[in-house]
Amino acid sequence: MSRWIPRLRAGWDRFWFAPATPENLGFCRLLFFAGVLVFTRRDYSALAGVSAVFWKPIWWFRLLGFPQPSRELLETLQVIWRLALAASCVGVWTRAATAVSFFAGTYLLGLQYCFGGSNHAKIIVVWAMASLAMSRCGDAWSVDRWVKARRGSPEPAASGEYRWPIRLVWVAMACAFFAAGISKLRHAGLAWVTSDTLAIFLVRSNYPLIRDANPPMFDWGLRLARHEWLCRALAAGSLAIETLFPLALFSRRLRPILVAGALLMQLGITAVMGPNFDVFIWSYIFWVPWDRIAGWVRGSKSGWPPEPVVARGRRLAVGRDSASIAGD
Amino acid sequence: MSDPAAPRPARREDAAAPPDLPSRTRRSAIYGLLAVLIAGSVAALVRDDPYGKELWPFSAYPMYSVRLKGWSARPHRLFGVLRDDPAQEIPLVASEYLYPIEHSRFYIALRTLETDRSPGGALDAALRDTLERYESRREAGLHGGPALRGVRLYELYYRLDRRASNRDRPNDRRLLFEVLSP
Q1: Of A289, A307, A322, which closes a domain?
Q2: pTM of the full predicted structure?
Q3: Which of B157, B122, B165, B44 is nearest to A183 (CA)?
Q4: Closest Cβ–Cβ partner in A49, A59, A116 for B105
Q5: How far is A293 from chain B (nearest CA, A)?
Q6: How confident is the model at residue A190 (pLDDT cuts 50, 70, 90)?
Q7: CB nearest to A118's CB, from B30, B54, B93
């Protein structure tokens, strides 16, 4: 037991703070905020004109005593938010811009759910914005970095500061999928797989006056629903991916399978059932090793072959369990 | 000339490398954010609030989690009564007709207001507001729908068909409430 605690602690520290280059986080920041700019474009000020009879504030609006806002306030706030998103994307005053993006964005996104319902796809935006706002995501792929480089500031060294923000988004996604899987098991049990439930959902999606979401992109759901075994196999696969998704945090082998499976599942749901996961799907960018891809695109993996650890002329002694430089 | 003693930036990520721990204060802030995320997610999971009443931005993600037992459905849907021909109705499900409340959220909100169907009550006020917003947006040219005289809320009944051949014709419908402008 006493051996396990230090190992677990070391594994925990490595998971969050193993050194990483700033490139990955910086590129994720750039892509993520560009996506948020695109996927959240709408006129939030129109919500000020909705009758107060619809006003059912969510818990933290009630807690903080936020009233239904005026049109002027929302018009101002959404301009500030969009400017902050754009600045966060290109990396101008990144620290301040990402903080404003988080606070203004959480308010505006939350405001929509004060008029009924909620949206699961946008939850990941809040956590990713919070994570980036607390991070040093402007240390690469940013105007801030470009300005510092011109002033002669050295390139930031690899640091644990560039790993944890991405890992936090991973955890937020794992929470979402795991909860979705547990919810199905709790409300329907294994009958969610062994019954006609998925087939019925697929058919309902093709009834314009029944479905609760956007129209599906294709009517393939009707074809799938005719094959009982196929629907049950898809239901079993979805349930397995959702409940097992947290393993993607720890297992390098399972990670590509679970992440690609979840992505395909959500794309499939959008195609045949209609719900729009836009910005959630966009958030898969945090799972992509952009620095390695950049290396491949440049024709060689970045920093490969690695710098020699042993200076020329010195001898490396290799023992059974260790290696050392002669003379050290 | 660069200083050979200066630390060289690592060019490759190495998850197996020894961790580079931030300061204790910094770690506390990071773990604090993580704790809020985990604690909120666990609370949402335990509470298991129904869709639309969640602790946003936490949720138990109950989407599609119910077990559907029958091949039938009874949705409540709003129809617009045409001003030029009150015998004609159009379904109000398109986002541009219900703007700025999205379709799914609009019907969840309406469902909670349906308990008060008295004239001048919550449902009456909500439907009048929906009609006014539809008309003002139509007059502003923000959608191409026809002019409406009123709205009617129906409970529709569908026997589901695997080919959705009756997708535009409910098997039955029942008027729940209506609002007509003078």
Answers
A1: A289
A2: 0.89
A3: B44
A4: A116
A5: 12
A6: very high
A7: B54
